[in-house]
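[recover] target loaded
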């Protein structure tokens, strides 16, 4: 991590510092105090140690002595501050000072609610206004078999399916965030999706064989069939962050014409089953509290709330 833009000679002493490769074990030890809450930061640290260009930094608090808190600073600003009381505030003060010095490069601040909102409170008067503040996002996890039957047609997507998966990812992103990730041109988002596919972290269920919803009497409604091409993505999800202990699901989406068929329930059950069997023993995600339908779906699958996240979008 020493290649991650260390402070120049002009910098003044700080309460936090930019970490180096030698600090990786200590940084991951901080994350291990809350594996579910810190999975995004921990996964970015692990990825960065494997790449020649990390695209981010890790900040550590305090600047001297054993680490008590860390913050991933890349496309997202992700504070991991497990300490309490005065040290919690001091860590956020220190990370805010570094964030002001380096300038805003992140598209969001995301993490455990007290840390994410506390960091934003310290930056709001210095950075441009947030586009949205989502301050109540239940953090859910499951560490056992799902409670509903997995969809047998959910599987990992393959590289040849990028032309199918990418449009579905863009549609999900627009619904969730409010703008297109490819509107400004460039291929960074497409490469991100391609990377998820090639690493086995993209799951799909194509439209062929999607069941029609049940009528009140339990019969299938033959008029409810939707004429979608069989090569259309009906359900998708990705593992946006992965460690050896936890895999965090992101980007859950069902084609609007196929909603109401409980594809998200059986699809998420399949994702949980495959992920726990082949990737990590715990599956997590976070969702906006106002999205009651999604929360109900995840709880039916067997997810339980273990914390609360917040996200500040720029």
């Amino acid at each position: 991590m020493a290649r991650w833009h260390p402070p120049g000679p002009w910098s003044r002493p700080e309460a936090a510092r930019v970490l180096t490769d030698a600090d990786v074990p200590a940084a991951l030890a901080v994350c291990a105090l809350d594996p579910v809450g810190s999975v995004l930061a921990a996964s970015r640290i692990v990825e960065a140690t494997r790449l020649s260009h990390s695209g981010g930094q890790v900040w550590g608090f305090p600047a001297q002595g054993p680490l008590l808190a860390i913050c991933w600073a890349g496309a997202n600003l992700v504070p991991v501050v497990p300490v309490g009381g005065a040290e919690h505030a001091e860590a956020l003060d220190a990370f805010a000072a570094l964030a002001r010095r380096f300038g805003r490069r992140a598209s969001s601040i995301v993490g455990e609610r007290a840390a994410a909102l506390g960091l934003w409170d310290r930056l709001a008067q210095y950075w441009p206004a947030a586009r949205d503040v989502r301050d109540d996002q239940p953090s859910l996890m499951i560490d056992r078999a799902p409670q509903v039957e997995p969809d047998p047609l959910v599987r990992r997507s393959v590289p040849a399916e990028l032309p199918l998966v990418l449009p579905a990812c863009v549609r999900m992103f627009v619904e969730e965030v409010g703008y297109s990730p490819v509107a400004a041109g460039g291929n960074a988002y497409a490469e991100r999706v391609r990377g998820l596919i090639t690493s086995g972290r993209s799951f799909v269920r194509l439209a062929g064989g999607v069941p029609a919803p049940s009528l009140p009497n339990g019969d299938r409604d033959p008029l409810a069939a939707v004429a979608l091409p069989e090569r259309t993505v009906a359900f998708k999800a990705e593992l946006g962050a992965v460690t050896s202990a936890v895999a965090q699901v992101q980007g859950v989406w069902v084609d609007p014409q196929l909603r109401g068929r409980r594809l998200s329930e059986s699809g998420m059950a399949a994702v949980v089953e495959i992920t726990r069997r082949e990737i990590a023993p715990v599956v997590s995600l976070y969702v906006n509290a106002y999205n009651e339908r999604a929360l109900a779906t995840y709880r039916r699958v067997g997810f339980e709330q273990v914390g609360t996240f917040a996200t500040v979008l720029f």
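[recover] notes: The first strand starts at residue 17 and ends at 18.
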